[in-house]
Design a protein that fits this description.
Layout: H1 2-14, H2 22-27, H3 34-45, H4 48-61, H5 64-72, H6 75-90, H7 97-140, H8 144-192, H9 198-212, H10 229-247, H11 250-258, H12 261-292, H13 299-303, H14 307-356, H15 362-390, H16 394-405, H17 409-417, H18 423-449, H19 454-457, H20 460-484, H21 492-497, H22 503-512, H23 515-539, H24 541-546, H25 553-581, H26 583-616, E1 629-633, H27 638-650, E2 656-664, H28 677-692, E3 702-709, H29 711-721, E4 726-730, H30 742-750, E5 755-758
């Protein structure tokens, strides 16, 4: 996957004209469309916990577990889209959400929420690596210590070179792969596996398991009901905790910043609803299959999230193990890459540039970003290994994360949408909420179980009380403080004082910052965000919960088929939509590939025909023999290759041929400080590699020249500087002109040198 992503980055920069600037590395050019955004949102939200913990709660609570996992982690993505659009309105040029908070809340507030953001990064990344390492150990026997460093290393490879754009490419590949594998697993379990006996066999197995091992707190002790006290408690903890890991995690803000405003709401909504299908379908099938087969798993195996790997290995043997391992590894690496880029942005913008080097150049920022990727990657390996040896499982970290970061959700959201939010109250409420949440968590564990330990603090009630306290107090305290002493913040400050250095990105932001469009998107987001939230956590589950309904076979069949159809629909959309949106870019890439293949054969045929015609014609040469200095412009098009080949044959042996390749770039880059000199050198070096790959007849009398700027202007200027006798070029370049290309026309009209055109 790393090799494919690096190849895509090469194609993106070489053939599609994307520039490797710092903006490109950290924000992917702020031009991501809804299809790719939806894939990326899903990939960033597919943690090890998504594939492992969701099956664990299915194994513990039955069919209600996967539903509450899915619903409890979908609504945050939907509601976050609205808040993220507010950031687009308030600070369209921001790179991180904490960059906005620096101006909104001051230095103290910035440091407080930067701490929460880095904590969220560390928690999420540690869960990814720890869950992946334990699963790798269970499936392959590889040592957990080695696994804790293999995973970050694989993530760092393409993140280091490709930045956020590489993450988006990897996300699309990962999401497509995971949905295909999920469909294979789900269909195989329900319809083809002899151990289960189809949907009817699974239903009978669950009924038998409910009789033999009834679930405490479930209606009738059944695994086939949404009336589950344990699952409901888990659902509440899940909802609160995931608000923290979405609203406080720079990885999601990064995606919102990279997206165009008109794509943001649609991309996050589709991403959230499509992500729902993953735990809804996968965890339902694997978790319930584990119950129906009466797998005897130890509490330690369950807490480490090994229900899914053990179940699928039992059902499908080595093939199942390979599928779940590959799916898990790609999920962990892609979500991990998102966290690496997020940490890199926070460290570069909010630590290095804000407090150490405010005047840092683009080259310095790029270097710090890459170093921070390496630093965070290795650091997380150490942290994950430490958590494992302390005895903290994936389940424990997942259920406690809301206590640690949930108190920041209210202050961050209100700082964006409410101008009266008091900056001191926002900062203090987040810190007080954290302290209150931890105190209630530990105090309730001690009161109920007589001690404070990993075991006592991992029970449902202390976790529930701690999560609720942290989340609610963050909102209550900031509203109370802001009501007593309200601010009246002017959001024009954040619009004007956060700037982007690159002119092209500034123009794009200005074009997209349409107030009426943003207002319409915000209204749509609030309206449908609330609607989907009510559907998923109120209208759908609560009637089934309060009625105590136990599924009949017909309703169970409907439930399973609904999960399969939902997954198929999501997969089709997520795989096809980005391709449709990128059809123009794909067309360019395919054209270049065909050109490379075709040119090898055509040039060979042309050489043969040219040699034959030279032998059959007189010694008269229509070209002026006094032309000693020839400039040939080469852009990779077929006609430019023919022009070069013709010049190498037609002009006299003692003439000099200057083979010129122009890398298209604004002509003002030498005077404009926004362009990084180191980047220009790298671009010029890549241009030389392009020329060196072109085979030239009689190459000893050729000089290769690479220039950066407007192609026509640079060709004319280079011809004058070199004092050439004639310019040779193709009638049209890589564009779609019918007769003469626009560069050719400009050279013909403005150059004072003779020009020879070849079709």
């Amino acid at each position: 996957m790393t090799a494919i992503v690096l190849l895509l980055i090469f194609v993106d920069t070489r053939w599609l004209g994307t520039r490797k600037t710092f903006e490109w590395f950290s924000t992917a050019g702020r031009s991501i469309k809804s299809g790719l955004l939806a894939s990326s949102v899903i990939s960033a939200w597919i943690w090890a916990a998504t594939l492992l913990e969701s099956s664990t709660v299915a194994y513990k609570y039955g069919i209600s577990g996967p539903f509450w996992y899915a619903a409890g982690a979908t609504i945050q993505i939907i509601l976050f889209a609205v808040i993220a659009l507010e950031l687009k309105k308030r600070a369209p040029s921001s790179h991180t959400f904490t960059e906005f908070l620096y101006l909104r809340l001051g230095k103290f507030g910035h440091k407080v929420f930067l701490l929460f953001a880095l904590l969220a990064n560390s928690i999420v990344m540690a869960m990814l690596v720890l869950g992946g390492a334990v699963a790798l150990n269970a499936l392959t026997g590889i040592d957990i210590t080695i696994a804790c460093f293999i995973i970050p290393l694989s993530i760092m490879m393409y993140t280091y070179f490709g930045g956020l754009k590489a993450t988006f490419f990897a996300d699309y590949l990962n999401t497509s792969f995971i949905f295909i594998v999920i469909l294979i697993l789900v269909v195989g379990i329900y319809f083809f596996n002899p151990h289960i006996g189809g949907i009817a066999g699974l239903f009978e197995g669950l009924q038998l398991a409910s009789t033999l091992n009834p679930v405490e707190g479930n209606s009738g002790g059944s695994f086939l009901t949404l009336a589950s006290i344990g699952a409901l408690i888990f659902g509440i903890i899940n909802i609160i905790g995931n608000f923290g890991t979405v609203f406080v995690d720079q990885a999601f803000w990064q995606r919102a910043i990279a997206a165009r405003p008109k794509s943001l709401i649609k991309g996050f909504f589709i991403g959230g609803l499509a992500w729902f299908a993953i735990p809804f379908a996968l965890a339902t099938s694997l978790g319930l299959a584990g119950i129906a087969m009466h797998l005897d798993l130890s509490p330690l195996e369950v807490s480490h999230g090994l229900v899914a790997p053990i179940t699928i290995s039992t059902l499908l043997g080595e093939v199942g193990g390979i599928l779940i391992l590959t799916m898990l590894f790609t999920a962990v690496t892609c979500a991990g890459s998102a966290e690496l880029v997020a940490f890199s942005s926070l460290f570069t913008f909010d630590v290095y540039r804000t407090y150490f080097r405010p005047s840092a150049s683009g080259r310095q920022l790029m270097r710090i970003s890459k170093y921070s990727v390496l630093m965070f990657g290795f650091g997380i390996g150490v942290l994950s290994l430490s958590l494992f040896h302390i005895g903290l499982s994936l389940q424990y970290i997942y259920l406690s994360m809301g206590i640690l970061i949930g108190s920041a959700v209210g202050p961050i959201s209100l700082s964006l949408i409410w101008k009266k939010t008091n900056k001191l109250s926002a900062s203090i409420s987040a810190l007080c909420g954290l302290l209150l949440g931890v105190f209630v968590w530990l105090f309730s564990a001690f009161s109920l179980y007589g001690n404070i330990s990993v075991a006592s603090t991992s029970h449902d009630i202390p976790l529930l009380l701690g999560n609720l306290t942290s989340f609610a107090s963050g909102f209550v305290l900031v509203i109370l403080g802001s009501s007593i002493k309200p601010d009246n913040f002017n959001y024009n400050i954040t619009k004007q004082r956060i700037v982007v250095a690159e002119e092209r990105i500034r123009s794009l932001i200005k074009e997209d910052n349409d107030e009426s469009l943003l207002k319409k998107g915000t209204i749509f987001g609030y309206k449908y965000g609330i609607f989907f939230t009510l559907i998923l956590v109120v209208i759908w589950p609560l009637p089934l919960f309060f009625s105590g309904y136990i599924f009949s076979y017909e309703f169970f069949l409907f439930w399973i088929l609904l999960s399969i159809v939902w997954t198929i629909s999501a997969a089709c959309f997520l795989i096809v939509k980005p391709i449709i949106e990128s059809k123009q870019e794909i067309s360019i890439v395919l054209s270049n590939l065909l050109f490379i293949i075709r040119s090898k054969f055509q040039i060979r045929n042309y050489d043969n025909k040219f040699s034959l015609s030279q032998n059959n014609t007189s010694d008269e040469n229509p070209i002026n023999p006094n032309f000693k200095r020839i400039l040939v412009a080469v852009d990779g098009s077929m006609s430019s290759i023919r022009a070069l080949d013709y010049a190498s044959h037609a002009f006299q042996v003692d003439s000099i041929i200057y083979v010129v390749h122009i890398i298209e770039w604004p002509d003002d880059y030498e005077q404009n400080t926004e362009y990084d000199p180191e980047l220009m050198k790298r671009v010029e070096k890549e241009g030389r590699l392009v020329l060196s790959s072109i085979l030239i007849k009689n190459s000893k009398r050729c000089e290769r020249v690479v220039k950066i700027g407007d192609p026509a202007n640079k060709i004319i200027k280079t011809a004058n500087d070199l004092n050439v006798d004639i310019i040779v070029l193709g009638t049209k370049g890589l564009g779609n002109a019918d007769d003469l290309g626009h560069i050719t026309r400009k050279i013909l009209s403005e150059s004072n040198k003779p020009v020879l055109l070849l079709n």
